[in-house]
Amino acid sequence: MAPSYKVRYFNTPGRAETIRMILSYGQIPFEDDRVAREDWPKIKPTTPLGQLPILEVDGKPIPQSTAICRYLANVTNLAGKDAKENLAIDIAVETFEDMKKPMGEYMRERDESKKQEKLQKLKETNAFYLGKLEEYANKNGGYIALPRITVADIIFINIYENLVDGLGKDYMNPYPGLQKVKQNVLSQPGIRDWIKNRPKTDKKYDLKQDL
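Structure for glutathione transferase, as requested:
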């Protein structure tokens, strides 16, 4: 019997969206459990590390989104075929983590003068990393880590969505190779169906606009 899967997170893409997309790519049914913010204080002590997302596999909770993505990559054939390929994927994933920190700092800042400083830092950081990722995408024919779709590409389009949502529709225009990565991922039937039908959130930009 196939295992049962439940993804627990809030009603937002966040760190759970890659997990949802990987399962959708593999056309693996899962329960999309969206926790209300007001319920989180009572749920938090019941989680393994006091945080979300969690993937439940046959009722057993697994924490840490990156570990979950690596696990599901193996389940859905989105991992590398050997140690060298997995290294290439891990390098890409660690690069994404370096990009997320300044983006998070910018999005959370409420002081307008400090927000502008963090925006400048974010743009400088992104110019470097997006330039490198563009090189990878061009070398690999529209994929980040390898010349085929991997978990790195699915993680990337969630970063893409956040960047465009926070910095504007035209922000990614200078990166045609990364645009091709987005197109390649969105062409996958399971991911396409998920994005088309997933619950609406308050984000200004949704990948659905590019289907």
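Helices lie at 17-25, 40-43, 65-75, 83-108, 112-139, 151-167, 176-186, 189-197.
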